[in-house]
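Long-time lurker, first post. I've been practising inverse folding by hand and with some scripts of my own, and I keep getting stuck on stretches where the structure tokens seem ambiguous. Below is the full token string for one chain I'm working on. Before anyone asks, I'm not after the true native sequence, just a reasonable design that respects the backbone. If someone could post their per-position residues I'd love to compare against what I wrote down in my notebook.
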């Protein structure tokens, strides 16, 4: 497996720093979710007209672009036009940077039956995949919002069997929010033949402590990888056992949670923890 970090975790870093620190800390790739003061990187010249130069910088630093993390939300019918416009921009950026993965969301109206939402999602994905260059990318919905529970994720995957569509397993969400064991989640993220449709991962750790001053509404607060209570090692071992050799991406949400550790602390802590774990598998 390869290790990546997300720019959500280093919102003040420019490309020079991303390349320097990414290499220094032992990462293999970077996932772009925001850059400096812009959350949608497809609107920045560094990723459009200047994409070739950006790619050279990353390549020279030994870094790949592990994914483009979009805001596309496929199960919201009122977002169809916006989804298609963002998808067009994202396709161009992904190809220019050599990225094969695009993070998307399921989303949708919580009062709408999940089966109805899956059909809305299928319609959106079918239109996205009809765009030039889309079918060669991997469009991966995150286990997030309405799509955390294993049974719901399974419905969406079954509705859209196209191999260009798959799941992004956020290991924190499915355990912390969904209260599910890793094996139950993993099994739900497989097709009818038992083949995994996990194409990407998000990794972060947390501790449940209602009295901690940094705890969120659900009582959890983020800690450095390996110092928390989430079954990360169990989840990663499960992926390894079933042949997953893709990305482990450290989703350090510094942009949203400024109280978290600085990237200069959290990023090398992740690579040290992850490399030790992977060496033991």
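-- Answer (accepted) --
I ran through it position by position. Result:
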């Amino acid at each position: 497996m390869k290790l990546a970090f997300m720019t959500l975790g280093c919102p003040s870093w420019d490309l020079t720093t991303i390349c320097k620190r990414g290499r220094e800390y032992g990462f293999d790739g970077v996932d772009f979710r925001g850059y400096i003061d812009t959350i949608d990187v497809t609107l920045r010249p560094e990723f459009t007209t200047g994409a070739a130069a950006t790619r050279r910088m990353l390549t020279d630093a030994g870094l790949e672009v592990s994914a483009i993390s979009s805001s596309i939300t496929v199960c919201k019918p009122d977002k169809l036009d916006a989804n298609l416009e963002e998808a067009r921009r994202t396709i161009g950026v992904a190809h220019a940077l050599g990225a094969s993965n695009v993070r998307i969301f399921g989303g949708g109206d919580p009062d709408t039956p999940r089966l109805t939402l899956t059909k809305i999602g299928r319609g959106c994905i079918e239109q996205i995949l009809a765009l030039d260059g889309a079918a060669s990318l991997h469009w991966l919905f995150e286990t997030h919002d309405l799509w955390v529970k294993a049974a719901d994720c399974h419905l969406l995957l079954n509705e859209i069997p196209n191999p260009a569509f798959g799941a992004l397993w956020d290991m924190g969400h499915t355990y912390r929010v969904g209260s599910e064991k890793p094996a139950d989640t993993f099994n739900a993220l497989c097709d009818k033949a038992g083949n995994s449709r996990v194409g990407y991962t998000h990794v972060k750790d947390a501790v449940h402590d209602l009295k901690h001053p940094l705890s969120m509404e659900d009582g959890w607060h983020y800690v450095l990888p390996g110092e928390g209570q989430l079954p990360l090692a169990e989840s990663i071992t499960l992926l390894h056992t079933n042949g997953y050799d893709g990305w482990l991406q450290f989703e350090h949400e510094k942009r949203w949670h400024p109280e978290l550790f600085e990237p200069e602390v959290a990023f090398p802590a992740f690579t040290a923890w992850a490399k030790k774990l992977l060496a033991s598998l």
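A couple of notes from the structure itself: The chain has a mean pLDDT of 97. The beta strands are 2-6, 29-32, 64-73, 101-105, 138-142, 165-170, 198-203, 205-208, 220-223, 247-250. Happy to go over any region you disagree with.
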